[in-house]
Amino acid sequence: MACYPSPDNATAMFRQLDSSLQECVALHNAEYDFVLDKPDPNTLRLTDHQWCHLYRVKSAVLISVGAVGLQASDQVASTVLQTITDRVK
């Protein structure tokens, strides 16, 4: 989790992260062989076999949650992310 001076700063970092991850996917390199999608405008999701990493921006906070080695990695990461998001003011 990272706290920024303003929501605009956090959103700018989120957009930069989105752009960088899109560039990784566009390389079609086996080292970056993951699925990237955006379940909502404030969330990025990276997934592959038994791992999931989520990023979400809310207010002036950028949240990062990952789960690895679990059959339900996506569900676990989503639940933890939502719990943290709900506590951000």
The number of helical runs is 2
The shape is: flat
Residues in helices, as a percent range: 25-40%
The count of β-strands is 5
Spell out the helices and strands N to C: EHEEEEH
Estimated share of beta-strand residues: 25-35%
What Rg, in angstroms, do the CA atoms define? 13 Å
| Low-pLDDT residue spans | none
Class by alpha and beta content? alpha+beta
Largest sheet geometry:
5 strands, antiparallel
Spatially, the strands of the biggest sheet line up as: 1-5-4-3-2
Mean pLDDT: 94
Walkthrough of the structure:
This protein has helices at 7-26, 73-87, and strands at 2-3, 35-40, 43-48, 51-58, 61-68. The protein has 89 residues and is α+β, with helices and mostly antiparallel strands. A five-stranded antiparallel sheet has the order 1-5-4-3-2. 18% of the residues are buried. The chain is flat, with a radius of gyration of 13 Å. The protein contains two helices and five strands; from the N terminus they run E-H-E-E-E-E-H. The longest helix has 20 residues, at 7-26. Helices cover 39% and strands 34% of the residues. The mean pLDDT is 94.
Please name the defining characteristics of this protein.
single chain, 89 residues, alpha+beta, 5-stranded antiparallel beta sheet, 39% helix, flat
